[in-house]
Amino acid sequence: MNQDTDQQKASLKRLFARRLPGKLRQVSGYLQRMHSGEATAGLGKQLSLTLEHSIKSCETFGFQACARLLEQAEIQCHNPDADIRAQLIKALMDLAEELDGKPKLEAKTDTGIVMEPPSASTLALQPLWISLPERERNELMAPLALFGFAVSSQPGDTAGAASIAVVADHEAAHAIRSRLGDKMPPLVMVGDEDSIPARLQAVRAGASAYIVRPVHLPELIEALETINPATAGEPPRVLIVEDSKSQSMHYNKVLKEAGCSTAVVNQPLQVMEALHRLKPELILLDMHMPDCTGLELARVLHQMPGWRSIPMVFLTAEENPEKLAAAMAISGDDFLIKPVKADELKTAVLRRIARGRTQTQTLTRDELTGVLNLNALQSALDNQCALANRLGESLCFAHIDVDKLGELNSEHGHAAGNAVLQHLAALFSRRARQSDSIGRLGGDSFGLVLPGCHGDDAIRLIDGIRRDFERQPMIYNDKTLHVHFSTGIASHDGGQAGTLRDNAARALRWAKEAGGNRIQLANSN
Ligand SMILES: Nc1nc2c(ncn2[C@@H]2O[C@H](COP(=O)(O)OP(=O)(O)OP(=O)(O)O)[C@@H](O)[C@H]2O)c(=O)[nH]1
User: In this protein, which residues make up the domain named GGDEF (predicted)?
Assistant: First the structure.
């Protein structure tokens, strides 16, 4: 068994699953625009092309229900039927919400604040320029297409500059920079060495990211998301608060073309409505407005629960360092001096949103295994318990614990134990359904939330994984590691999440006491 490939597949599936709700919302948004008569031949064609790729990607990663829904959307691009399209728009939004639990964003409000989706051109595949040796490039090309990137090896000068990034080693990057000068797209540098001098060389060459060979796809995709968070499928959400209509229209256009969903507020006192509807990831805030200054508004928002840490980028004609320092002291974020160039605006906003998304990821993921951390798993369990109570549906929680990991650590070393934990997490991530949540409870224990599952279904699923895990021993540093795990499963009976967890932990103890490598259901004795 190739453990690296297994882990990579699981990471790719996780990455893809994270992007899927955004993609569904995007498709639904554009169908909505076609539905309300905004259809242009270009929009329909672009949507159809994107859908073709997305269907293939969903099938590859096993998201069959999404693939079927997107197939219906594709039919609607060619043979529209008003009723079917309206149902489809709703079904796409509902599925997106089910997948990530985030509520729908509404397109228009009665206060005149308009929520706008990104420009239709951002629906197209993202052009990516890879200037690496042919074999390396070819290996990356097909899987990158599944994530919506169109890879080219030798784009012309204009296409090169329009690429979202160029992936190159030091020599190629140098040659491209000499050719394109300041039209060079952001650079992801690939190198052989993981050392400070190699990384320093990349920084000096202006690289936004440095990846050590062999290039792991999840790492590359995450680097590209950091350069442009719009490539993650979920458009960055930006609220523009600016009293000048002409300037706000300009910022709005630039940000929509950069792939953002936006809302514009010209009267700062109307900001709450837009905040609640758009749920922005960043506010672009003019410093000088008549009813209330940008700084005052920032202070107000920073005192309100839910908006205390929202990043802000200030727009100002002010160059007085003391006043700028005051703005920075409030939000700790960026400011841009007017008149703002389009590229500057785009870079500042996208970079700040990417940083915010990385922080959220860091806060919810277990660093060693990439599955949810304890807090995130706990909140997934709380949400699913509440949902199961509301809908009267079944739900199971499984507490999984590696048997005798202490002994394995002593015999083969802590790194071998880490590899076991990573392998098990990858195995569960791969076999779980898209509605399941897998997380690390701590040490050598994992938790699995299984909505819609009865005890018997949960036993069947986990026993399949247990048998595979036992049948295919892990190879670590040429040594065969025979490892197994035990599981306690509890079925939800309308009570609290804490009770479900306690019951699963109790069942796990029974499984361990009975010799391990087994599964025990809490409600049977
Ligand atoms: N390699 C590695 N080991 C860990 C990690 N976290 C916890 N452990 C080890 O997991 C073991 C957990 O101890 P126990 O709960 O007694 O479990 P066990 O040795 O697996 O034995 P049983 O659960 O009784 O089968 C300890 O030896 C920890 O050092 C980790 O992140 N990496």
Answer: 393-524
